Amino acid sequence: MDDRRDFSVLGRPLPRVDAYDKVTGKARYVDDMSFPNMLIGKILRSPYAHARIVGIDTSKAKDLPGVKAVITGTDLPERKYGTDPRFADEYALCRGKVRYIGDEVAAVAAVDEETAEKALDLIEVEYESLEPMFDVRAAMAPGKPQIHEGKERNVSMEIHLDAGDTERGFAEAEYVREDTFRSQPTFHAPLEPHAVLAQWSEEGKLTVWANKQIPFYIRRLLAHTLCIPEAHVRVIKPCIGGGFGGKGEMYALDVCAAYLSKLTSRPVKIVYSREESLVCTRRRHEMTITLKTAMKKDGTILAVKGELFSETGAYNSTGPLATYLATTFLNLPWKIPAVKVDSYLVYTNLPPSGPQRGHGVLEMRYAADCHLDLIARDLGIDPLDIRLKNAVHRGYRTANNMNVGSCGIAECLKRAAEKIKWREKKGKMPPYHGIGIAGMGYLSGVNLVPHTGAAAIVHVHEDGGVNLLTGAAEIGQGSDTYLAQLVAEEMGVPLEDVRVISGDTGVTPYDPGTFGSRVATMSGNAARNAGRDAMRQIKEVVADEMEANVGDLVARGRRIYVKGSPERSMPLRKALRAMQYRDLPMPVVGYGFYQAPTHVPDWFKAEDDPSATYSFGAQVAVVEVDPETGRINLKEMVNAHDVGLMINPMAVEGQLQGSIHMGAGHVLTEDVIMRDGLVMNPNLLEYKTPSPFEMPLVHGIAIETASDDVGPHGAKECGEGTEVSTLPAIVNAVFDATGVMIKDLPITPDKVLRALEEKERRG
Amino acid sequence: MDDRRDFSVLGRPLPRVDAYDKVTGKARYVDDMSFPNMLIGKILRSPYAHARIVGIDTSKAKDLPGVKAVITGTDLPERKYGTDPRFADEYALCRGKVRYIGDEVAAVAAVDEETAEKALDLIEVEYESLEPMFDVRAAMAPGKPQIHEGKERNVSMEIHLDAGDTERGFAEAEYVREDTFRSQPTFHAPLEPHAVLAQWSEEGKLTVWANKQIPFYIRRLLAHTLCIPEAHVRVIKPCIGGGFGGKGEMYALDVCAAYLSKLTSRPVKIVYSREESLVCTRRRHEMTITLKTAMKKDGTILAVKGELFSETGAYNSTGPLATYLATTFLNLPWKIPAVKVDSYLVYTNLPPSGPQRGHGVLEMRYAADCHLDLIARDLGIDPLDIRLKNAVHRGYRTANNMNVGSCGIAECLKRAAEKIKWREKKGKMPPYHGIGIAGMGYLSGVNLVPHTGAAAIVHVHEDGGVNLLTGAAEIGQGSDTYLAQLVAEEMGVPLEDVRVISGDTGVTPYDPGTFGSRVATMSGNAARNAGRDAMRQIKEVVADEMEANVGDLVARGRRIYVKGSPERSMPLRKALRAMQYRDLPMPVVGYGFYQAPTHVPDWFKAEDDPSATYSFGAQVAVVEVDPETGRINLKEMVNAHDVGLMINPMAVEGQLQGSIHMGAGHVLTEDVIMRDGLVMNPNLLEYKTPSPFEMPLVHGIAIETASDDVGPHGAKECGEGTEVSTLPAIVNAVFDATGVMIKDLPITPDKVLRALEEKERRG
């Protein structure tokens, strides 16, 4: 473990390297790009939720002047794709049938947007309607049609976790409680819609500029779908206006733009409308979770049984993974000696669900931590105490084999409670005021799928400047900045000396990208190792020039000096010059790699460790409920998070605040409202994300456990887990304020009023 | 030495990887690029050849609506630049005085081209005229003003080569002859004019898209000139529409676009007009070379004395290097036991000269090989025989220490003569028909300046595809293709599996770029070594899996097999998959580097080896002269070139043909016509490059000596030296046809007529 007091770049609240360009409007997004002869692509979508395609006539559209190409599903190679090849169930353009309102049927490329839209109107599609199913219950009912062939009862996959002796746990129970919670679908709602610009060269090489979190996966998927080698595909990620998981997949626009470019020999750009971006990409899974817990009266958890239904919509996307994560994260951060969970991923004729910040873990922790507060009330135990009593710790191994390393859950609980003055407030607040607490554990350094390792390259210029090449994708979370800080620290130079090139599969080494909270840990290690490798080469020469031991040399302030003898030093610049004038001058190139020392878990059993280490966190919410209107005033929150080590406190603070914003929206205002498969609020006016004025006062607390060496200097994720406890903390606070646990999100004013009325009626 | 018959990708006439995009118009050049909010920059130029700037008033220009910034020399950091820091004498915008008609005085950035041009008209500059000097004689005359302060007689630098005992050579001479030759200035005349697009980010990082042969040098020069670290500059070379040496430097537009972008916080594009591109960048040096040779009557050269005046125009550019190269290449390819050359680089008030294909060597070889034909005639020796007699050979060391390695000069002479049937034609042709021969040696793998080493990186994808990252700059010569071939050969994959990313200082490892015929040798070695390094990593795993020795494994046809046991093999794809599923899967990244094993020579003495190896060549020209019109009909040529090894025969053929085109233009039609410092033919209508219809029948012969291991598999340059003998071969053919040696290029019809008249007058 490094001595943190020795850092010169890490741990400092440095402004992000892309901040100025973004706030001054200079940052270039996909839609800012334009090429000579560029065509505009548009996609025709299904008006049916479930229907057979009887025939498509594109001849009129093709005849429209200005239209350069029209394609349907049968024009593309017959290749299904999916986030995981085992669950590939999607064509870029539908073949044979459509499965939701918005499903992709045809695509056109034309000289301008107007012509492209006119062409869509001229495509004639004959459908034969099939019975649609709009919820899990309907989809699983006997005798219903299969949305995807061979999927009985429309169940896409099942997970059966059975770890420890749950029967004994329930047999020994002094108290048992069962509750069912529902978490609604929500949009990612990034400000920038999905967009792609594709150019297929005459030589057969494809270049794609796309706002993607995972350029290297997109490369693989495009190669697979278009039947070309990966080496022929280059995916470049320009600036991204927010992802939150929703830009983590290949979508119809990517394949269509590429193929239209191939057909027309011209660059093709497709930018989704706001409606397409919200409805026809992904939303968060609706999950319905039933938990039944066996307790001792002193608050000790003995066993939990659970049942989970995850609604994946028309396609799998990351549904299997989300379901796996929800299932396995029942086991953190509270000790449960025995668990038995049956989880089902179910198809419906609704827009497909996919990964969203927190990805399954959030839904399970919402259910589990609200359930825990009901148990605590029944047993007469303070919610803080029941959590402290059951909190996991370093060295703990869950029933399903998750190994806890560095662990700040207890400290997070204590620091959050202290900050909010829990002991002084809990039970002593005025009527309709409430306080709630929750805790969580999260992935940090996943090995959920193959190839999650990361590589990085550092080029050192002759004047001591550094280029960092990383495949990690900056999507607004700040990775370009903190990865550069890790390199700067190794090289002993200020942050401004490092230039980051990221997220371009043509030029950066392999790194799967931004998902599963893997970047800080895995890309971070790769970047640090690359910097370290470069500095090792330089130090070897300096040691020679200065007649010192390599091990005694320290790089700092653009100098390399002998530890303990600061007078014996050499400027980095001079060292590099010395390297140039040796017999065989070599440019300094450092290479770094990191792979988590875990194995890809079996999703169907959920009995292995999915992450090399875990982050932990606790949140407290203070609310006031207006009994007249049902309106919830979210007044104050504490977000305490075990980040391992703060690479950049300003970036950490941003995540601690931003997570509260997103989580508060999830609990209070956001909902994808659907009627008969049609989204009723597909725009940012009617889909209500909180405004800055609705934000509570947030206290961010970063706990630096820094006590394992999984992440760079012990750093862990702090951009996704940070949102996980927001939901149950607020819901539990409303429970505290009203005495009613509302088990169906979002907690809109009408639900509060109804709950209060029912409570009154019951007396 | 590799067994050439074993190659699967090398030695094949594969189409260039960029060919399709270029012929279909898809290739994107700088001027095809456009960014939101982009401004257009323009430069105000001096109408005086030599004048003091008394004052500049930019206020009216600044007040013009749409003008966003106006800068003059004093707005920029006071930093002189030059190709070599020892000879830096140029400001991006003039300070204090102007030195040629076209010198840069001010620059503007405006919302469109029209406004920018109007703004130039509104800038008021007061000049005080100084005496201009338009040729070397005038510039060196006593009492003339100094164009650059401190340069006596306007001599910028002198080289005094004195090797061997020239006095003894002349004392022992049986025959002595002296001639003076003049080689005129010529334009590079690439079809694409010089262009740049610069964006200075708010964070202070500069990105420049520029059509440059040498992105990494441009990075260094921009950093130096703008007083920012190299790490803050990224130079990206898009497609280039021809360079020929003329895009090998930083020019005013680069600095101005960058600085105007800084001032305006907007992207700025500057595209030179055809006139600016021709006149205000660089032209070839006018050189006047006097050679005096001491001979034995049997044709043995005993010693040479020379004097050389190189006219550099208003600035040094690469003048010192050109002068050095001209001086040192008197010594190849004919054995000269003693040489004494005094060379002078002289400033004038003409547009600056700079590097052009052949760069000094061409001018010297023109003079020397024409001089040799005059000697041969006087001594009654066949021009072929006198060359064969004096030709250098492997192991020969010139008087000034140039070490000859692999050497095909004799074979080039013989094969060229054979092809044209020299023995049957020479002296036996009809009147006014003539045949001429010449030979040359050229640089291949220079170490003329520091930092000429090259690095390359190879990323291997999981499906066996390969990305090659090289800093070498594809400028039309085909380097992207042949570097990819070198990697493909090492990796055992077809060319199409390799994707090349080149010439982007942000992402590719260091490589100084395309100059000095260094790419095939040095970048080629780096690329090959990178591929070899990647394949070594793969073979180690395969050896383990297959229980074989690494040394026994061969990669070919996307498979790795045991030498001699083709049945024991594994597909590359499977090998890579095996690597992914090992305990610690690593992406395969190969790194390669090459540095020539020579030292940077002392230009002032010209007594060291400037190149790791040398290419050789011989050319024969057949002409018919029309005695009525003086018109020369260039009928047929042979271009025999010792390429070491043909990486791509189609690319070699292209160079052998293209060089003849450029050289024939130099001899016959091209000339920069100047009157009082003003270029009279600054456009492609009046500056006459040959059309395809004026091309002779060309026989290209590639000699594969492949007998040293300096270049990859022995490959040497074949894009620059290939033009060197074109000039003397044609001039000697005209000499043969007319009996008159015209010593002043180009040989226009009027010169031929005058020569014929004079010959007749003399009888």
Summarize this structure briefly.
Chain A has 763 residues and is an alpha+beta fold. Chain A is built from 20 helices and 28 strands.
Protein described:
The structure is a homodimer of 763-residue chains. Chain A is 28% helix and 25% strand. In chain A, helix 10 runs parallel beside helix 19, helix 15 crosses helix 16 and helix 17 crosses helix 19. The model of chain A has no long low-confidence stretch (mean pLDDT 95). Chain A is globular. Chain A folds into three domains: 165 residues, Aldehyde Oxidoreductase, domain 4, CATH 3.30.365; 183 residues, Aldehyde oxidase/xanthine dehydrogenase, a/b hammerhead (Aldehyde Oxidoreductase, domain 3); 326 residues, Aldehyde Oxidoreductase, domain 4 (2-Layer Sandwich). Chain A is an alpha+beta fold and 763 residues long. In chain A, the strands form seven sheets. Chain A has a seven-stranded mixed beta sheet, sandwiched between helices. Chain A has a five-stranded mixed beta sheet with strand order 7-15-14-13-8. In chain A, strand 24 and strand 25 form a beta hairpin. Chains A and B meet through helix 1, strand 17, strand 18, strand 19 and strand 23 of A and helix 1, strand 17, strand 18, strand 19 and strand 23 of B.
